[in-house]
Design a protein that fits this description.
By secondary structure, the protein is of the alpha+beta class. 50% of the residues lie in helices and 16% in strands. The chain is built from 24 helices and 24 strands.
């Protein structure tokens, strides 16, 4: 019986080649998209899952009045381990904030992600260097490991990963160090590094004012996390009071500690952006919807062919076939199509995968031994077969033999309504994607064309290892660079305006205390970036006090303090350092468009600031390549500490990375919109073919009675036109809600426009008319005699 069903299935599929091709092709494209989305979802949700302590590790964070941060002081971890019995281990780590070079006789590597951590943190995260993880014997011992890739670059002949001597920093310094070995840097972990330094204890001699470490805890399985969080918060407050904090301080009262699980850190950290999570959810929903649309096509076309199969069903029932046997036959046909579509989908996915990897900056592969896709695909295949095939199989196997053999067969009204409802659903999804694509494009255009308050164009960031605490240290380098023809200005700061968040400190004006972002700058910082002054003045060498106790605020800081006449006022900062406010600059969007401009203070002298290492050079556009070549050749003489290798980046390219996630979303919506439209049009094409074929005699009679070709086209298009209009009306409220929610994630955004809704309706109606008219054309041009000669 199975062989007979298989033969009949293959013959039926071959006899209806166009419908079969549309079914298999549409499903294959949808499955290919779904395969890529499934792989990406598995990858993004799998960070650190290979860690045996995955479910029991939490990071300790701090909630301040206006932000959340994962930065904590090093003494906090020690008291947590000593005072809270539910905590079995505490690890502390810190990432380097600048790039430095490491050399050997074979080459040089630049380390930008050097992770400093204690032994307990390394053990907690299952970090295993070559030769095994060793506990440093003293507080001065430092075990330094390079990632396998960097180690092989420096020592290609050392395959065992044994210790070696290396040069650290510029060769002119003559600094050497001992490399303890190599280590595998897991790219699928939140703890990313290109080198690690394992010490016995982190933050020796530092108190609760040094909030620049990450503290991780490992708790006992089954621990009440909320209770532990409350204990840590109480302990932190107690320690702050012991460290001299004023209990009446507003900031102290609002500050509390919190715990965030390791599993949240990649996608949904409490102290960070959840943009990755939103992109992943959007991508997953799109993948599912595309697959649903393909299944709808399958179901719709299978039901639409019911009339062609009616007599076959009637004869088989007269011959004694049971309903479940007929249903099984139809499911076999659908399963064959699904298997063919799956094979084709894997081929399509393999072709698209390089572009997908490039877009999302991942390295996914279908043909890997541990790919969960190999057990997921068979389940998806069975699910699609059941979802797309059960209802058509029940409809086809339920025909009554007496009726269909007399020629009185008609599909039920339920099938009619179901087909139309599914068609409306298909186009509704397509319309949502089209509207979403138009609005994403409009927002991105707004982001690219709006004035961000500064000009990163023609500004080159030169990577550097030297510290410039005061202008006098930087002046010799500035003078040498300024002597190069084509250089317009030079400055140095502790942070770049590239979207990276700087440090924050508490500052007080007239007794009112607030947290401000601080940037330690040098002369010509604002001029180099073309940041506009609103009132007062910028830093100038003519005022000697600027290098000692002058400060500039932005508009957001002035608004936060509620100042009406800020120039000349005194602002008190870290270590009770007092500054005189000499200028107010206009707000500029260093964090992009998703987050509002943070209240900020700029000063040249900051006792609690970070070292100034970020050199920025503004260059005439017409002489860019000439100046860069000169800088490269003269760099050893300009900056001896960092003169071995001249490395630079364009600041506008660095700032442009802030748009990366939204550009990814734009690409996803473009692909989704194209796929949904394509699959929906495929289904409409086949459905229109069936409807037109079914009405061929009606069309012939109408033509004999004098109907024109235009009237026939209008007749056939009218029902589809109504369905597409309904689809637009159904989808508009949903599209409005979704796009409005998305726009609300931006601090600076466009107003929701009406044009995308009108364009989506015009586009879908036009495509429908064209598709249906192509199918109707053959029926309209046919000779009525051919359709009626047997009547």
């Amino acid at each position: 019986m199975f062989r007979l069903n298989l033969k009949i299935a293959l013959r039926n599929l071959w006899r209806n080649k166009v419908i079969t091709a549309i079914n298999i092709g549409g499903l294959a494209i949808a499955l290919a998209a779904f395969i890529l989305v499934t792989m990406y979802f598995t990858y993004e949700t799998g960070f650190d899952k290979d860690n045996p302590n995955y479910n029991d590790i939490y990071i300790v964070g701090r909630q301040l009045p206006d932000l959340k941060t994962n930065n904590t002081p090093p003494p906090l971890g020690k008291v947590i381990k000593a005072e809270i019995p539910e905590v079995v281990s505490v690890g502390t780590m810190k990432m380097s904030f600048f790039e430095f070079q490491v050399t050997s006789h074979n080459g040089v590597v630049f380390l930008s992600k050097c992770l400093y951590l204690d032994y307990d943190a390394a053990k907690m995260f299952n970090i295993k260097p070559s030769g095994g993880l060793i506990r440093p014997e003293s507080t001065t011992e430092n075990l330094f490991y390079l990632s396998n890739e960097n180690y092989q670059t420096l020592f290609p002949n050392n395959k065992s990963g044994k210790p070696e001597m290396i040069g650290v920093g510029s060769k002119s310094l003559g600094m050497t160090g001992r490399l303890s070995g190599s280590i595998f840097a897991n790219p699928h972990s939140n703890i990313a590094f290109d080198a690690i330094s394992v010490v016995k204890e982190m933050g020796l001699g530092e108190n609760y004012g040094y909030n620049n470490y990450n503290t991780y805890i490992q708790v006992k399985p089954g621990t009440n996390i909320k209770a532990v969080e409350n204990k840590i918060n109480a302990l932190y407050k107690k320690e702050l009071l012991k460290d001299g904090e004023d209990p009446k301080n507003v900031t102290f009262k609002a500050t509390k500690a919190f715990l965030d699980p390791l599993k949240n850190q990649h996608l949904r950290p409490k102290a960070g952006s959840d943009a990755n999570y939103k992109i992943l959810i959007a991508l997953s929903v799109l993948g599912i919807l595309i697959l649903v649309i393909a299944c709808i096509n399958f179901t719709n076309l299978s039901i639409a062919q019911a009339a062609k199969r009616a007599k076959e069903v009637g004869v088989k029932k007269v011959m004694g076939a049971y309903r479940f046997q007929l249903a099984l036959q139809f499911l076999t046909e659908i399963l064959i199509q699904c298997i063919a579509a799956t094979i084709l989908a894997l081929i399509v996915a393999e072709i698209i995968l390089p572009e997908f990897n490039n877009l999302f900056v991942v390295n996914l592969s279908i043909w890997t031994a541990n790919n969960s896709l190999f057990w997921q695909l068979p389940l998806i295949l069975i699910l699609i077969t059941l979802v797309a095939g059960v209802y058509p199989a029940m409809v086809l196997s339920g025909f009554k033999p007496a009726l269909v053999l007399k020629g009185n067969f008609q599909t039920s009204k339920q099938s009619y309504w179901l087909r139309n409802s599914l068609l409306v659903f298909q186009f509704s999804i397509a319309v949502v994607f089209i509207i979403g694509l138009f609005i994403i494009n409009a927002q991105l255009k707004y982001m690219r064309t709006q004035d961000v308050g500064f000009k990163p164009e023609q500004v080159v960031y030169i990577k550097n290892m030297a510290y410039f605490v005061s202008p006098s240290k930087f002046d010799p380098i500035r003078d040498k660079i300024m002597n190069i023809p084509g250089v317009k200005s030079v400055t140095v700061a502790n942070e770049l305006p590239d979207g990276s968040k700087g440090g924050k400190n508490r500052y007080t004006i007239d007794g009112k205390e607030q947290n401000l972002s601080f940037t330690d700058v040098d002369f010509d910082y604002f001029e180099t970036l073309n940041i506009k002054i609103k009132e007062g003045r910028l830093f100038s060498r003519e005022f000697k006090t600027d290098t000692a106790n002058s400060a500039i605020l932005n508009e957001a800081a002035v608004a936060k303090y509620g100042l009406t006449d800020p120039i000349g006022k005194t602002i008190k900062g870290c270590q009770n350092k007092e500054y005189k406010i000499v200028g107010i600059i206009k707000d500029f969007k260093t964090l992009g468009f998703e987050k509002p401009v943070e209240p900020a203070i700029y000063s040249i002298n900051d006792p609690c600031g970070n070292p100034k290492t970020q050199i920025m050079v503004k260059i005439e556009e017409s002489r860019m390549s000439e100046v860069l070549n000169t800088l490269k050749s003269q760099w050893p003489g300009i900056n001896k500490l960092d003169g071995d290798n001249f490395r630079y980046q364009f600041l506008d390219e660095m700032y442009g990375r802030l748009f990366k996630k939204q550009e990814q979303l734009q690409s996803v919506f473009f692909a989704a919109a194209m796929l949904t439209i394509f699959i929906a049009i495929l289904g409409l094409f086949a459905f229109a073919k069936y409807i037109t074929t079914g009405r061929i005699k009606e069309i012939a009679v109408r033509k004999i009675l004098g109907a024109s070709n235009l009237q026939i086209f209008k007749l056939i298009n009218s029902s589809f036109f109504i369905l597409v209009v309904i689809a637009n009306l159904v989808s508009w409220p949903l599209a409005y809600i979704l796009t409005k929610k998305w726009l609300e994630t931006f601090a600076y955004r466009i107003d929701l426009p009406l044009l995308p809704f009108i364009l989506s309706a015009a586009l879908t109606i036009l495509l429908t008319i064209i598709t249906v008219s192509i199918q109707a054309n053959s029926a309209v041009k046919a000779n009525p005699v051919d359709a009626l000669k047997y009547e």
